[in-house]
Design a protein that fits this description.
With about 90 residues, the chain is α+β, with helices and mostly antiparallel strands. Helices cover about 30% and strands about 25% of the residues. The protein has a five-stranded antiparallel beta sheet with strand order 3-2-4-1-5.
Length: about 90
């Protein structure tokens, strides 16, 4: 399992188009990927679900955790972190 905690710098957060792009990228990996908004304390959601990602309520300045488990977990975490234009150190569980 790999995870990364990052601060969201995008003005749009994860709303509409950015959320759709996030889901599209997450869906391209074999690993199970979760998104958790640590700033609001909402539970983790399936990163392949547009409804789930939108319900996470991720806005600029929020801290999120992206967790992936599976054969391509490292690539999934890296790609999703890059999409959000984030700077953080990965946390390996």
């Amino acid at each position: 399992m790999r995870s990364i905690e990052v601060g969201v710098r995008s003005d749009a957060g994860l709303h509409a188009r950015p959320a759709a792009a996030f889901v599209r990228i997450a869906s391209g990996f074999a690993s199970h990927v979760l998104l958790e908004n640590l700033s609001t304390g909402r539970p983790a959601v399936n990163a392949r679900s547009i409804v789930g990602v939108l319900s996470a309520g991720v806005e600029k300045g929020h801290v999120v955790r992206i967790t992936a488990e599976g054969k391509d977990e490292a690539q999934a975490v890296a790609a999703l972190g890059e999409l959000l234009d984030l700077q953080a150190e990965p946390v390996v569980d």
